[in-house]
Amino acid sequence: MSLFDKFQPLAAARATLGDVSPAPIATPIEAVLSATRGRIGGKEVLLAGTNNYLGLTYDPSVLRAAAEALAELGSGTTGSRMANGSYDSHRGLENELAKAFGWSSAMVFSTGYQANLGSLSALAGKGDYLLLDSDSHASIYDGARLSQAETIRFRHNDPENLDRRLERLGADAARALIVVEGLYSMLGDQPPLEEFVKVKERHGAWLLVDEAHSFGVFGERGLGLTEASGLLDRVDFVVGTFSKSLAGIGGFCVSPHPELELMRLACRPYIFTASPSPATIAGTRAALRRLVEGQDLRAQLHRNFNRLYAGVRELGYRMGSEQPGPVAAIILPDRASALHHWRSLLEAGVYANLMIPPATPAGLNLLRISLSAAHSDEDVDLIVGALAEINVPA
Amino acid sequence: MTSDSLLKARQAIGTALTRALPEHPHLNWHQGLSSEAGLDSVQIMNLVMEVEDELDLSVPVDLLAEVNTLEELAERLAALIEEQA
Questions:
Q1: Which of A32, A45, B22, B54 is least surrounded, with the fewest CB atoms within 10 Å of its CB?
Q2: Domains detected in chain A
Q3: pTM for the complete prediction?
Q4: pLDDT confidence of A392, banded at 50, 70, 90?
Q5: Helix, strand, or coil here: A250?
């Protein structure tokens, strides 16, 4: 009996992928050459499996801001926001995030994972309720585990199913925090957000929207699905990350409720960790400015994903979402087929993501392609052309 | 726990099984769901969602962590049914 015995089923699952190089899970990326090119297996490839939706990882304003902060403020804060890790720039970024939403308060976290972990666990305590979409990201489930609230799941993207659960809570619905995502990262689908808002309002509950994959992508100013749906005055919290459209690392929670400030005093994933490095904060502030004014980037990204969805559909593949978006998930019949597709794309010079259970909903085997505003029409055509060559549509 | 609520819970699980896990028609009620029947966490959660609809009852996610077999699930559900009656 060993502590490691419990990992054997995972090891067996990984072994079914074969022992070949480059590995499809945790693929070694030998070099990144630009927002859209990298080197894998000794070969230059098109990167179509990143979350670099606006392509800002090499934006000159982002690089300059980060480099200046690195030189001026040093490599790290060496401490928590509650101790020595609260610099003017951390507060500056929080003020800029709150202002972008037109809301009173924002908190910055060291990772996007911690933003969910911290927000859910601090907002929903003992005697409260968390109502989670069943396809929620692991950070949401883990936030629920850290919280002492009673956690209830509702069916994915099903406001009526949520309604029934809130109905059962009766007056306690006023102590319920509903959590949905602006874009689900596995299948690339979006929620019927306005319907969820109506259900929340009918029961007097609270709503948190995780815009990790939709921030920068949707809305005139890129604030996410909440903005794009005209619902900024009807949700209670938006959580997001710096590691996708903002091209850095970190996360945030922003709210129209000024009491969010109090959460700093109770939020363990915020208190018991070092604050983001000065370079990270400076780069993120520059990226945020570019994001808010980035209608040109969003137009290009939307052009790219509409083109990709059209091309993939034409090939006859089943997709995870009817609605085009930055994540295009191709549903394949089994693991072997998904792996074959992943390898074939890589051989054709395109890096995408292989996604298999238990990371995927409903046991699906997926080839996930993510697009960027930095991709060109030719890049999208390269992806579609590589898929066409595979010759075995599901 | 009354036999009525236990019976109701077992019936709901039976119906849920045919909807959520049609590929596992012969699950033993005393078999470990993940350790022996090989179900993953997503399959177990989906089964429970069907049971929730069937009983019009919300099942806290925590409860699942303590359940290993269908019979244990039935017992937990029966307790919930009575709690809410």
A1: B22
A2: 5-54+295-390 (3.90.1150.10), 60-292 (3.40.640.10)
A3: 0.95
A4: low
A5: coil
